[in-house]
Amino acid sequence: MIRTEYNLDILEKITPTNIIKYDDEDLFLLQELYSNWMKLNEKIKTIGGRPSMLPPEFVESLVALKLGYYRIDDMRLRFDCYDPNAPQGFNRIEIKYGTGRTDISSFSPEINWDRLNFVKFYNESPFDCYFEIYDIDIQTILNESENFGRSIRDYRGMRPRLSIMKELIERGIYRERKEFSLF
Asked: For residue 178, how many other CB atoms are within 10 A of its CB?
């Protein structure tokens, strides 16, 4: 893992920001974190509790590693990752994810990203994790998701909420789907 300052080319403006670049060595740490999270959830179940969600930072790091993105380490920017290989206007990435059968994601009423990567996890065991990453551009979401588009266009300051699986993915509305295994 390398933390560094990088000049992002965003909307015809150079923006210096802190990023994190991941390499193959970081995969072992992510595997360990995932196994520990699964074991923690098993213990939580023994006391009658509900399993906890995967931390967003874990998911963002995993996606950045697998897809060669830079993870943004700067709260001023309102997106999670930057795709250095995408054309300008398609490189600011928002990451959302689901670990169960249903998903409800909320979004800021102000859009500051170009693409959404939705990660669908299939949690089998502490040593078995398959996931799919769906790549969806913002214009497709605005055009195809009635709830999301209406919420954004109303500008009421409310956080739009939608099921990405139900409203987009199950209808085949995405640019690309990739499958991965953590182990």
From this structure: 12
